[in-house]
Write a structure and sequence with these properties.
The complex is a heterotrimer. By secondary structure, chain A is of the alpha+beta class. Chain A has one domain: Heat Shock Protein 90 (2-Layer Sandwich), CATH 3.30.565. Chain A contains five helices and five strands, in the order βααββαααββ. In chain A, strand 4 and strand 5 form a beta hairpin. In chain A, helix 1 runs antiparallel to helix 2 and helix 2 packs antiparallel against helix 5. Chain A starts with a strand and ends with a strand. Chain B is α/β, with parallel strands linked by helices. Chain B has a single domain, classed as STAS domain (Transcription Regulator spoIIAA, 2-Layer Sandwich). Chain C has two domains: about 160 residues, Globin-like (Orthogonal Bundle), CATH 1.10.490; about 110 residues, STAS domain (Transcription Regulator spoIIAA), CATH 3.30.750.24. Chain C has a five-stranded mixed sheet, with helices on both faces. In chain C, strand 4, helix 11 and strand 5 form a beta-alpha-beta unit. By secondary structure, chain C is an alpha/beta fold. Chain C contains twelve helices and five strands. Chains in contact: A-B, B-C.
């Protein structure tokens, strides 16, 4: 599998969330995702970017355009050195999306993409990686 | 500070969201609308999102908050013009937008508001067949 | 064993190119797989000449066992469009590969003459030449397959578009009569199309009729439910009609919850409901009066 291009964006302020949406949209268009798939990816990116900024204390997102045997895709990795997620399984459950609670949006974001990976350590940080294929 | 314009049309307030809102702008809109509703006592609030290409859980909750707050002040809220891709994504996201009525466009949304909503339930309520 | 001292293939291609071409053409024209209806003799001659030329060039410097190296690129670049064209014109994979395989006989005849009494050298050369042409022949088959798949893909797309039209039954009332088995991919495309039409026509009611659908599995049922939910979010309502007893059983069996989605046995019944919701009634004209009376 080849990485055709990569870019890293800082996620410090909430304006950065909008920026990630815009850039993720551009990349999604370039990769050739359908309109619905673009929307799903950008929405997932928005959720995860917000988590990074608000709960992760800031971090960055690494965008990668992929080519796997002529199948094109887009991978976004969100990294922060924040407090970490205490119970990932719980965070992935749906109550977190619709409720008035923390709204980590993880469970929902997972359904919007093809591949979803999360690793988190208390006191060390969180890393979420999502991939959408054409 | 930026504000999204709120128009008064007779007994109704109209908001058209044309920009990709950052979180603070969305919260400002919430506050501005609350203030205008208290000031003008409208029958209803119509929010046009036909230009909105992304609605994530934050924006979704904003709509829910606006509708709930308008309800307390005795006004209905209708969100109109949701794009198909957005609707499909929201369903997948699991966001149900309870308490928010929806219509296809401004015309239908106004008709909904003008007929008044006897039922204060979520937009899942429907007339009997 | 160095290739220069053993293989006589590059040499005979240099010395006897014209003769080889003539022999090869004779071979092809006598073959039972010749398709005079699909290709003119003159065109076949031009193609054969071109191929032989490129083949000769490649053998001079390129590997005599590995056709994927850079010296063979021109040959591959020639064979790919040739295979694609054959596929599009209706040749079979065998007929296409025979173009390459039929070169064996003329080459073998020449090699036999050149090697004379050197039976070991001849055996080596016959084997390696055969393998070489096998690889190229198989390459044409691979390219043939790829282009066939592309054609099928295009046809599938066209069929998809033809078979699921969204119909405007009345102002504000859409109908989507689904026919045939639904797979996940098709259902998704069809549903996205429906939502788009809802926006375009401003229809607040969409009737999804599944009379023509023999079976529904969990995935398809879920897509249907998601579409109804999405339409609701947009401000339109869906009615599902034509649920046959078998499908009703499947739905119950799968534990799929239709919630408060309206369902009707027939498209007609669904249409009646739609009209009612739109505040319309259909009235029968009194007596047998022509419309323009009075």
């Amino acid at each position: 599998m080849a990485v055709l291009k990569t870019e890293t964006l800082l996620l410090r302020l909430e304006q950065d969330i909008v920026r990630v949406r815009q850039i993720a949209r551009q990349w999604a268009v370039e990769v050739g995702l359908s309109l619905v798939d673009q929307t799903k990816l950008v929405t997932a990116a928005s959720e995860l970017a917000r988590n990074t900024v608000i709960y992760g204390g800031g971090g960055e997102v690494i965008l990668e355009a992929l080519n796997d045997n002529n199948r094109r895709g887009l991978r976004l990795t969100f990294v922060d050195q924040g407090p970490g997620i205490p119970d990932i399984a719980l965070a992935l459950k749906d109550g977190y999306t619709t409720g008035a609670g923390m709204g980590l949006g993880l469970g929902g974001a997972k359904r919007l993409v093809n591949e979803f990976d999360i690793a988190s350590r208390m006191g060390e940080g969180t890393r979420v990686c999502i991939t959408k294929w054409k | 500070m930026e504000h999204i314009p709120i128009l008064k049309m007779g007994d109704f307030l109209l908001v058209s969201i044309q920009v990709d809102m950052h979180d603070r702008l969305a919260l400002t809109l919430q506050d501005d609308l609350t203030e205008r509703i208290v000031q003008t006592h409208p029958k209803g609030v119509l929010i046009d999102i036909s230009s909105l290409e992304i609605v994530d859980s934050f924006i979704g909750r904003m709509f829910g908050n606006i509708a709930a707050m308008a309800r307390v002040l005795d006004a209905d809220t209708v969100v109109v013009g949701m794009q198909p891709a957005v609707a499909i994504t929201l369903v997948e996201l699991g966001l149900s937008l309870t308490g928010v009525r929806t219509a296809l466009n401004v015309e239908k949304g106004m008709a909904l508001l003008q007929n008044g909503s006897a039922d204060r339930e979520s937009h899942n309520g429907r007339p009997e067949d | 064993m160095s290739r220069e001292s053993v293989s006589k293939l590059p040499e005979i291609l240099r010395k006897y190119e014209r003769e080889l071409l003539a022999d090869w053409m004779e071979q092809q024209l006598a073959s039972p797989t010749l398709r005079r209806d699909l290709i003119k003799d003159a065109d076949l001659h031009t193609q054969s000449q071109e191929f032989l030329n490129l083949f000769r060039e490649a053998t001079q410097k390129g590997s005599l066992v590995d056709t994927s190296d850079s010296y063979w690129e021109k040959v591959r670049d020639f064979l790919e469009p040739l295979s694609r064209s054959r596929a599009e014109h209706g040749f079979t994979p065998l007929e296409t590969a025979t173009f390459v395989f039929s070169l064996k006989q003329p080459l073998f005849d020449r090699l036999r003459k050149e090697h004379g009494r050197d039976t070991e050298g001849l055996a080596e050369d016959l084997w390696s030449t055969s393998v070489l042409l096998d690889k190229l022949g198989l390459y044409t088959t691979e390219m043939f397959q790829k282009s066939r798949e592309a054609i099928i893909g295009r046809q599938q797309q066209e069929l998809l578009e033809l078979s699921t039209p969204v119909v405007l039954l009345w102002e504000g009332v859409l109908a989507l009569p689904l026919i045939g088995t639904l797979d996940s991919a098709r259902t998704q495309v069809v549903m996205e199309n429906l939502l788009q039409r809802i926006v375009e026509t401003g229809s607040s009611i969409a009737i999804i009729d599944i009379t023509g659908v023999p079976t529904v599995d969990t995935l398809v049922a879920q897509h249907l439910l998601k579409t109804v939910a999405a339409a609701r979010l947009m401000g339109a309502d869906c009615i599902i009609s034509g649920i046959r007893p078998q499908i009703a059983q499947t739905i119950v069996h799968l534990g799929v919850n239709l919630g408060d989605i309206t369902t009707k046995a027939s498209l007609a019944a669904a249409f009646a409901v739609a009209l009612q919701r739109a505040g319309l009634t259909v009235q029968k004209r009194a007596g047998n009066e022509p419309p323009n009376a009075r």
